[in-house]
Amino acid sequence: MARDERIYPDVANGNFSFHLFRYLWAMRFAYDKRVLDAGCGSGYGAALLAGLARSVVAVDHDPEAIAEDQSRYAYRNNLDFLVQDVADLSFQDQSFDLIVSFEVYEHLDLENSERFLHHLWRLCRLGGWVLLSTPNRLVETPFLKSSGKSYSYHVNSVSPREFKGRLQAHFGCVRVLGQRIKAPWFKGMLRALDFFNLRHQLLSYKSKQRLDGLLSGRESPEPPDLWQVQLERSFVRQSGILVAVCRK
User: Fold this and answer.
1) Which residue, among 151, 55, 61, has the nearest Cα to 95 in the 3D structure?
2) What are the extents of the domains in the chain?
3) Tens of pLDDT, residues 155-193
């Protein structure tokens, strides 16, 4: 398995644009800030943030990944990679102005995810930002069932309401957005009407692919370009990825 597929399994499924989009979006929060990337994986996102931030510390539990990141991004003198467990972060209180953690929460069991959120709250300075993303269980579960796939490493999938409730136990201000592909108006209208995500439950994976191609005006599904990806507060239930914006 290629390294990026091990760190980010969705890369193999053509979803790299979704990961990259989140880091590009997060850059607006990073200018001249002290940043922590908790669960940095292959490190490309931390390197992007380091282009604007005052300093970036990126952590991951995988020593091999961290060693490769240190070598690959050695030219960034404001970027440090460290081996740490995100549920047991050792930095001092209020060490960071901005904390990002994308596609990490779902890999932690409930106990460790609560420890993780406590550490994010502890490490974020007053007035600082915490940005997190995780799959939406209301979309992921029926999608996996219809496609015959299984993500055994997703042990803590949540709905939008569950995600927001758990975050509000730690942060005073929480906003949950939905990340999805922009759609032609007719497809967007149908998706908006499908409040309970019945399309994922009633249609097979191949049927959904054919329908998506028909409504999108293309013959076969293709990985999205960056310009096709969006974050919106509306229709969060129908979005495959949840992105939380938290302020301490």
Assistant:
1) 55
2) 3-137+149-182+224-247
3) 999 999 999 999 999 999 999 999 987 766 666 666 666
CA–CA separation, 197 and 143 (whole Å): 10
Hey, which CATH number is domain 3-137+149-182+224-247, 3.30.450.40, 3.40.50.300, 3.40.30.10, 3.40.50.150?
Answer: 3.40.50.150
Residue 59 banded pLDDT, cuts 50, 70, 90: very high
Angle at 168 between CA 191 and CA 8, to 5 degrees: 60
Rounded to whole angstroms, the Cα distance separating 101 from 79 reads 16
Can you tell me the distance from the alpha carbon of 53 to that of 30, in angstroms, rounded to the nearest whole number? 5
Please tell me the pTM assigned to this model: 0.82
Averaged over 23-48, what is the pLDDT?
A: 96
HSE on the CB side for 50, CA within 13 Å? 20
Question: 237 and 199 in contact (C-beta within 8 Å)?
Answer: no
Strand blocks (E) in the chain? 34-38, 55-60, 79-83, 96-102, 124-135, 173-181, 229-232, 241-247
- 36 with 131: CB under 8 angstroms? no
| Exposure of 5 in the CB half-sphere (CA atoms within 13 A) | 5
Dist CA 10 CA 48 (whole Å): 20
